[in-house]
Amino acid sequence: MSRRLREIKHLPIAENIRSKGLLGGIDLAKTKRPILELRNGVTISSYIAEESLNMGVFLRSLGNTIVIIPPLAIRRRDLKLLLDTIYSLINKIEKSM
After folding, report:
1. Which residues pair with 43 in a beta bridge?
2. What does the alpha-carbon distance between residue 48 and residue 93 come to, in Å, rounded to a whole number?
3. Is the pTM of this model over 0.90?
4. Using CA atoms, how far apart are residues 2 and 8, in angstroms rounded to an integer?
5. How far from chain centre, in Å, is Cα 54?
6. Residue 96 has pLDDT above 90, yes or no
7. Burial of 93 (0-12, 13-18, 19+ CB in 10 A)
8. Do the Cβ atoms of 48 and 55 come closer than 8 Å?
9. Long-range contacts of 60-68 (CB under 8 A, 24+ apart)
10. Burial 58-71 (b: 16+ CB within 10 A, else e)
11. What are the tens digits of pLDDT across the range 58-87?
12. DSSP letter at 43?
Protein backbone atom coordinates (compact mmCIF):
# COMPACT_ATOMS: atom_id res chain seq x y z
CA MET A 1 0.00 0.00 0.00
CA SER A 2 2.79 2.44 0.85
CA ARG A 3 4.34 2.03 -2.62
CA ARG A 4 1.05 2.94 -4.31
CA LEU A 5 0.52 5.89 -1.97
CA ARG A 6 3.96 7.19 -3.00
CA GLU A 7 2.73 7.14 -6.61
CA ILE A 8 -0.42 9.04 -5.61
CA LYS A 9 1.78 11.59 -3.81
CA HIS A 10 3.06 12.76 -7.21
CA LEU A 11 -0.42 13.80 -8.34
CA PRO A 12 -0.68 17.63 -8.28
CA ILE A 13 -3.79 17.86 -6.06
CA ALA A 14 -2.86 15.07 -3.61
CA GLU A 15 -1.38 16.55 -0.44
CA ASN A 16 -0.67 15.36 3.07
CA ILE A 17 -0.85 11.65 2.34
CA ARG A 18 -0.61 9.58 5.48
CA SER A 19 -1.08 5.96 6.46
CA LYS A 20 -0.66 3.56 9.32
CA GLY A 21 -1.01 -0.07 8.33
CA LEU A 22 -4.07 -0.26 6.10
CA LEU A 23 -5.60 3.01 7.33
CA GLY A 24 -4.91 6.14 5.35
CA GLY A 25 -5.94 9.60 4.31
CA ILE A 26 -5.29 11.79 1.28
CA ASP A 27 -6.04 15.49 1.38
CA LEU A 28 -7.07 17.09 -1.89
CA ALA A 29 -5.84 20.65 -2.31
CA LYS A 30 -4.80 23.05 -5.03
CA THR A 31 -2.16 25.66 -4.24
CA LYS A 32 -2.39 24.67 -0.56
CA ARG A 33 -6.14 25.41 -0.46
CA PRO A 34 -8.56 22.55 0.27
CA ILE A 35 -10.72 21.47 -2.65
CA LEU A 36 -14.28 21.55 -1.32
CA GLU A 37 -16.25 22.04 -4.56
CA LEU A 38 -15.77 21.37 -8.23
CA ARG A 39 -16.33 23.93 -10.95
CA ASN A 40 -19.94 22.83 -11.42
CA GLY A 41 -20.74 23.45 -7.72
CA VAL A 42 -20.84 19.78 -6.68
CA THR A 43 -19.21 19.18 -3.31
CA ILE A 44 -16.07 17.09 -3.38
CA SER A 45 -17.57 14.63 -0.87
CA SER A 46 -20.60 13.94 -3.07
CA TYR A 47 -18.45 13.62 -6.17
CA ILE A 48 -16.05 11.15 -4.53
CA ALA A 49 -18.89 8.96 -3.22
CA GLU A 50 -20.81 8.91 -6.52
CA GLU A 51 -17.86 8.51 -8.88
CA SER A 52 -16.17 5.83 -6.80
CA LEU A 53 -19.40 3.80 -6.78
CA ASN A 54 -19.54 4.15 -10.57
CA MET A 55 -15.99 2.75 -10.61
CA GLY A 56 -16.97 -0.23 -8.44
CA VAL A 57 -15.59 0.90 -5.08
CA PHE A 58 -17.23 2.79 -2.22
CA LEU A 59 -15.02 5.63 -1.04
CA ARG A 60 -15.87 8.12 1.62
CA SER A 61 -14.42 11.48 2.30
CA LEU A 62 -14.40 13.85 5.21
CA GLY A 63 -14.39 17.26 3.59
CA ASN A 64 -11.44 17.26 1.20
CA THR A 65 -9.86 14.11 2.68
CA ILE A 66 -10.28 10.72 1.03
CA VAL A 67 -10.45 8.18 3.86
CA ILE A 68 -8.95 4.72 3.30
CA ILE A 69 -10.32 2.10 5.69
CA PRO A 70 -10.38 -1.31 3.99
CA PRO A 71 -11.34 -4.52 5.79
CA LEU A 72 -8.33 -6.06 7.56
CA ALA A 73 -8.87 -9.30 5.64
CA ILE A 74 -8.79 -7.60 2.21
CA ARG A 75 -7.28 -9.59 -0.65
CA ARG A 76 -4.31 -8.08 -2.50
CA ARG A 77 -6.26 -7.76 -5.74
CA ASP A 78 -9.07 -5.91 -3.93
CA LEU A 79 -6.58 -3.56 -2.27
CA LYS A 80 -5.04 -2.95 -5.70
CA LEU A 81 -8.50 -2.15 -7.11
CA LEU A 82 -9.13 0.25 -4.22
CA LEU A 83 -5.84 2.11 -4.73
CA ASP A 84 -6.17 2.12 -8.53
CA THR A 85 -9.64 3.63 -8.15
CA ILE A 86 -8.32 6.34 -5.82
CA TYR A 87 -5.54 7.16 -8.30
CA SER A 88 -7.98 7.36 -11.22
CA LEU A 89 -10.50 9.37 -9.22
CA ILE A 90 -7.92 11.97 -8.17
CA ASN A 91 -6.86 12.32 -11.84
CA LYS A 92 -10.52 12.74 -12.80
CA ILE A 93 -11.06 15.41 -10.11
CA GLU A 94 -8.02 17.33 -11.29
CA LYS A 95 -9.32 17.36 -14.87
CA SER A 96 -12.75 18.61 -13.78
CA MET A 97 -11.35 21.64 -11.99
Report:
1. 37
2. 9
3. yes
4. 10
5. 14
6. no
7. buried
8. no
9. 63/34, 63/36, 64/27, 64/28, 64/29, 64/34, 64/35, 64/36, 65/25, 65/26, 65/27, 65/28, 66/25, 66/26, 66/28, 66/90, 67/24, 67/25, 68/19, 68/22, 68/23, 68/24, 68/25, 68/26
10. ebebeebbbebebe
11. 999 999 999 999 999 999 999 999 999 999
12. B
CB-neighbour burial class of residue 33 (10 A; exposed 0-12, middle 13-18, buried 19+): exposed
Alpha helices in the chain (DSSP H): 2-9, 44-54, 76-95
Q: How far is CA 69 from CA 23, 41, 94, in A?
A: 5, 27, 23
Pairing mode of beta strands 14-20, 33-34: unpaired
Q: Return d(Cα 11, Cα 56) in angstroms, integer.
A: 22
The CA R_g of the chain, rounded to the nearest whole Å, is: 13
